[in-house]
Amino acid sequence: TLPAFSVVVTKKEKLNSKVFSISSITIHVNNVTVTAAQSENGMVRVNNHRSRLPISLSHGKLRIHQKGKSMLIQSNFKLKVLYNWDDHVVIKLPAALSGKV
């Protein structure tokens, strides 16, 4: 069976510009919801409770830590989400999920 997960990116237009920033990302995996908001650099909300990084959830199946100026979320099935709290998100998936997402 394939793991169930979702990644939602919310963007907003920067003032007086046609450029967008990412106001938040929300990842739901392993019955946990993690939200990282642009306004809360260095922190995440886990099931709507603020937490400082690093953090390990679901008995180590989900790990969140600071990587340089970005936040990295890693799951036990090799989902990786990197967010720099501004305008850049990278989502990496294992090859086993190719064509199934």
UniProtKB/TrEMBL annotation:
Instruction: Write down the InterPro entries for this protein, in alphabetical order.
Output: VWF_type-D
Give start and end of each VWFD domain. Answer: 1-101
The protein's superkingdom reads Eukaryota
- Please give the name of this protein: FCGBP protein
Q: What is the lineage of its organism?
A: Eukaryota, Metazoa, Chordata, Craniata, Vertebrata
